[in-house]
Amino acid sequence: SVSAAFREHLRCLALQDFPCGLGSWVGGWSLCRDQPGLGAATAGQEEAVGVGEESPEALMELLRDQHSPWALPPGCNPQDQHLREVAVLTPKAVCGPNLFQLIRSLRIVGKEVEEVDEGLLQFEQLEELILSTNLISRITSANLPQTLKVLELCCNAVADLQDLCAQPLPELQHLGLGYNRLCSPWQDKYLTANCWPNLVSLDLSFNSLTDLLDLVSQLSSLQKLRILLLQGNPLALIPTYRGFLVDSLPKLFVLDDIHIEPEERDQFHGLAGQPELIRSEARVVVSIGEIKGVPVPCEQLEDGSKDSVVTYSYCVAYEF
């Protein structure tokens, strides 16, 4: 689950171990600092550094020096560094429920997560949730904080949006669903303003979407949508695909990572009013450049030989 992966991540950060946390190395210096954040102690509160204790400056240097054995390993993000610094300056702020209030962004990538559990509701200030490259096939919006502005689920196994749209996230601005298993037709209207009133960016690339007309009818209600990715879907093979989208979604700025210029809008003006030009088929030409692994044929039979001739046949299959 996401909660289990987060607990493992916290274990790697070692927020309660030297040079972080409360221990003999800080003495009374941190015990008098009860306010969360990175502010300095008030005047008169700092105690003298005793024998075996380290100053906060020295502890912070151990975290920030890339050659230090306590430096963060490669791949950690700025928030991880921030949490460790808080654990030095105000250790109580990373103890128990207080920790969840500090986290605005949660990134769990490539951890084989299958379940988005209700433990995420503890992150009451969470704005960004990155769960790319996992094994998630189902995600329930009831387990997501309502404060989310970014939800990235790229490279998972999501095939249905029904549970995700059960309790819409009103503040969401980016929804990333690229490289999943979404397909047409939709069971209901899941990509409308009723579910995502503030959506600015939507990534549906490399799925199995085929119904362009139905998709456009839903996306047209997203008045704040400015960035759209649909490349890699079968519907992108339609000859009038880009022109139809550009004319149908006049507020769109970027389509498939390509900025929409005014000249392009003029070129495709009026295409949205001709849905009959949208064909549900495309022609694909496949050529074989090289075949490896085919057994060497028998040596050519001598003239006049009465031996039988053996014929080999091979089948080449393509998956689309």
Automatic annotation (TrEMBL):
InterPro entries: Leu-rich_rpt (IPR001611), LRR_dom_sf (IPR032675)
Keyword Repeat belongs to the record: yes
Keywords from the named record: Leucine-rich repeat, Repeat
A GO-annotated cellular component: cytoplasm
Name of this protein: LRC43 protein
